[in-house]
Each structure stands twice: as C-alpha cells, then as structure tokens.
C-alpha cells in the first residue's frame, strides 16, 4: 500500500510539471499564440521568446549564410 501511494504521488508530481511546462505563449517573431516548447534568447539586450516553427526558419536561414 505504501509503495502504491508513493507511486501515485510521483505520477501526480510529474503530471503537474508537464502541465506547467506546456503553457501557451505568444511568439515574439511570428506573433502567434503557441503551445509547446518555448525558446528564449537575448537579442540586443532584449529577451525574446519564439516557437519551434520560427526556430526551424532561423536554422534554415543560418544554413544559407553559414
């Protein structure tokens, strides 16, 4: 019984962490409301947050000029 209770608490903690990490945000590059992974960089002293779609676009652009 004790092991089951510990397992239940562990599952609840992992689930709450996943929900907290997958919140929605507005991408500073495309301006769309997104959910999922949020990337953060500092550009000219300003913190920007961007989505995975914009990250892929930036990587492709870097490949063209790199």
SSE layout and pairing:
Blueprint: H1 2-21, E1 24-26, E2 33-35, E3 39-43, E4 46-50, H2 52-65
Antiparallel strand pairs: 1-2, 3-4
Shape: elongated
Low-confidence stretches: none
| Helix vs. strand class | alpha+beta
Q: Can you count the beta strands?
A: 4
Helix fraction by DSSP (H/I, runs of at least 4): 40-55%
| Straight-line N-to-C gap | 59 Å
Q: Strand-residue fraction?
A: 15-25%
Topology as H/E string? HEEEEH
Question: Features of this protein?
Answer:
66 residues, alpha+beta
Task: Explain how this protein is built.
The chain is an alpha+beta fold. The model has no long low-confidence stretch (mean pLDDT 84). It has helices at 2-21, 52-65; strands at 24-26, 33-35, 39-43, 46-50. It is built from two helices and four strands; from the N terminus they run H-E-E-E-E-H.
Give a quick precis of the structure:
With 66 residues, the chain is α+β, with helices and mostly antiparallel strands. It has helices at residues 2-21, 52-65; strands at 24-26, 33-35, 39-43, 46-50. The strands form 2 sheets. It has a two-stranded antiparallel ribbon. Strands 3-4 form a two-stranded antiparallel ribbon.
